[in-house]
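Continuing the series of single-chain predictions for the mutant panel. This is the parent chain; the variants come on the following pages.
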Amino acid sequence: MTPSPDHLPLPRPQPVPLLLSTDQAQSLVRLMEAAPAVHRRYQFFVWAQSHVQPLVPHQLLVCGHYQRQRRGVVFDTFHSVVLSGALLAALNDAEGALMRAISQAWVDGRGHPLRLALAGLPAAARPAAELMARELGTAGLLVHGVARPQRPADIESLFIFGTTGSPPAAADTRLQACLDLLLPQLHRTWQRVVGTESDLLRPGLPSAERPPATRPAELPARSAVTPRECQILAWVREGKSNQQIADALAISPLTVKNHVQKILRKLQASNRAQAVAIAMDLGLLGDAGSRGIA
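Parent structure:
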């Protein structure tokens, strides 16, 4: 008996051939070499900015993992541009219309990397989607994840990339293929970070059993960084140069450089990206930002 057209299996999308440039291939090797040392959220942010960025450029990265205690996916947001509290709340709300729509779209795509148009989301998710489109300046997101074997609707991890502007179709196809290549490393690294953070919060865990990662006590106190330094850090997060920050504050670029050096020492950071990541981990930046800088 011939099955009706409604019951014919959907064709499986053909894999996209991916040829990495020399620089991209080197970035992939460095990414894989650096991944085992990533145990904390701020380390993950630095790793993503240093090693994932050359392969999948982004200003927004939302990472989701299945939390068995909650019996659902929990999301964490990393961003290098200023986003409003309303948008961040929507991105971190697993039960909200926006994240439910994004998750369902990936499940409906049968576990393949997905370019998701914000304008095509359901009506309930549209207000948050329109807010994201305005603040991030993008029309779509790149989404990929890992589901349980034989249970495609049960998400183990989900990664959502947003970037300012929209890439051309050819570049978009390559980005999806590149993300498919990176997914195992993203999944393993984020699962390790989540496990480490959970262990460090567990009461009564003997110190000998704690994972080899920076302890909260080793991080500098919040009060050590001044409000002006937090403001400068927020602008650094957005990629502003010393000259741009100096122009906004009516000071010299050398003064900005001295501020940055003090920030690095206070946060025990070796570079700007690490300083921003530590500041985000400590909750120092908040909504401080560079409004008014061109």
